[in-house]
Amino acid sequence: MKKWVQWTVVVLLFGLLVLIRAYASDLFYDPLIVFFETTHSTDVLPEMDIIKLLGNTSLRFLMNTAISLLILWVIFKRSDVIKVSALLYACVFVLLMIFFWILLGSDQAGGHMALFYIRRFLIQPVFVLLLIPAFYFQKNL
Q1: What is the spatial distance between Cα 135 and Cα 130, in angstroms, rounded to a whole number?
Q2: DSSP type of residue 43
Q3: Backbone dihedral region for residue 103 (phi beyond 0: left; psi -120 to 50: alpha; all else: beta)
Q4: Which pLDDT value is given to residue 39?
Q5: What are the structural domain ranges in the chain?
Q6: At a CB cut-off of 8 Å and minimum separation 6, what does 81 contact?
Q7: Is the pTM of this model over 0.85?
Q8: Mind giving me the DSSP string for 56-120?
Q9: Helix or strand or coil: residue 123?
């Protein structure tokens, strides 16, 4: 694949990640969006369908993961990179979803910063931004 085609595909895939972010409120059930935009530091969590929230958060994570793995494939074209990345994504997903579920059960007013950051890591494709330089550095050793 020519370099300009490769980078065009990478830019388009990043564009898909941006579109998921831009239309998240239309595509996914997430009552925490409004909660974290307000004075969440003093409020209790809003009423929500936890199963629906966990499902939609999982769907968003999986969509971001699939696109992120495609980005890694287009950049590196190595199956070992994809295997390691998929394993890392799976481990992170399981651990963070467990903590997310536990923190959703917390009824304490305030004290929701851990929930905020775990949710952010689940719904934002931050991991790909860490993996690209890591694999690039490994490739150039």
Answers
A1: 9
A2: S
A3: alpha
A4: 65
A5: 3-139
A6: 72, 73, 135
A7: yes
A8: HHHHHHHHHHHHHHHHHHHHH--HHHHHHHHHHHHHHHHHHHHHHHHHHT---SS--HHHHHHHH
A9: helix
Q: 76-84 long-range CB contacts below 8 Å, 24 or more apart?
A: 76/135, 76/139, 81/135
Q: In this structure, what token pair is assigned to residue 88? A: 């890392």
Structure tokens at 86: 């998929």
pLDDT tens for the 141 residues of the chain, in order: 788 999 999 999 999 999 999 999 899 999 888 888 876 667 788 889 999 999 999 999 999 999 999 999 999 999 999 999 999 999 999 999 999 999 988 767 667 888 889 999 999 999 999 999 999 998 777
Q: What is the DSSP letter of 42?
A: T
